[in-house]
Amino acid sequence: MYLLSSIILLLLSGPLYAADEPDAEADPASTPTAPIAGEPAVASDEASEQLNAPTVPLERVLPIPSTRRIIETVKHLGLFQREEEVIKFSDEESSISGLYLPENTGRPQGGILILHDIAQHAQWPHSVAPLREYLPDYGWNTLSLFFGDYISKPLPIITQPTPETETETEEPDAAESPDSLGDPTIIENTETNTEGELTADTENTEPDLTNENLENNNSDALDAAAENFEAFSVPDTLEDAAQNVTEEIPQDVVFLESMIERVEGGLRQLNTLGQFNLVIIAHGLSANWAVEALRAKFEENPNAIGYSLVLIDAKQSLYPNYNLNDQLAKLKIPILDLYTKNSEDMPRELLARKNAVTRQLPINYMQIGLPSLKTIHSSKHNMISRRVRGWLKTHAAGEVVEVKERGK
Prior knowledge:
Elements: H1 2-20, H2 45-52, H3 65-79, E1 86-87, E2 98-101, E3 110-115, H4 128-134, E4 140-145, H5 184-188, E5 190-192, E6 198-200, H6 211-228, H7 238-244, H8 251-272, E7 278-283, H9 286-300, E8 307-312, H10 324-328, E9 335-339, H11 347-358, E10 365-369, H12 383-395
């Protein structure tokens, strides 16, 4: 028993003795040395290079919601083998314009251009998708456009207060100036009044305001101005003067023009597909771009026919500012104005739009309110699509005609 306990003690004491002994094979250069007191710590070359290296800003990926919505929509259609619905107006591979569905009856009624609202896409399930998939069963060719990010109103510019320019610079007091403390000449030039205050001798500090000095200063200033004078050429006509003035186009004007051009491109695409009886269905803010595009078209050709307009929860655009009611009243075409529970917070706007348009178009305008929209994502037979289909059948139905070729 005594022998067994001594063997166990020897085995346990072995690692302890080995831990206390220094490693003979260790590299002395690799062992850290403690800094000597009184000497500054010297950093290694690599550490100094890292400290002195210029800081490079990290690259961050800015999200583009509109592009992501387009990509996800196309990916969703690809899962159901519906890639043929994607259509583009140009030959660029990266451009995607919209989604197109031809009619399914053999008796085409016309073409419908569908515009989605802000933060939506061309296959929005609760509004756009039911219409573009339901109306082809009744003879309508549908084209749903993609829109990019809508413009947002810029933040107000905060003007920084400018410091007031001092006309007269305050000179330091001679008594408080550090240079005057040990200068006996300044002390001799000061006098003490009856109240014990020090008054500076201003005999040597008054400027010489003589006429000769003023004349010399004015002549020097005129000579310098004459040397720096540059003659400018007078334009012959006002057109030349207008070309020289380069004004930056406001951002809201550029955005409005781009949206109108987008709508006009969709109408031209339907024309190239053989559709000349055209209807625009606009949701939310897109009603402004649809109305402006139609107004510009009728201003260019007042005798144009074959156009109708359907508004769903239309909203007036505040930026860019657009007077939707007044411009809508100028359109002499059939108009259906639908509003749901989503527009109940705008009763005055709805009433103002109805009053403004009915004064000009008492027959062609119709405003209808619908209850809250409850639909299943896979269902296209909702109340809005059925109401729009019935109105189109009564007020905007077309017919098939033979197109005569030019020169025959």
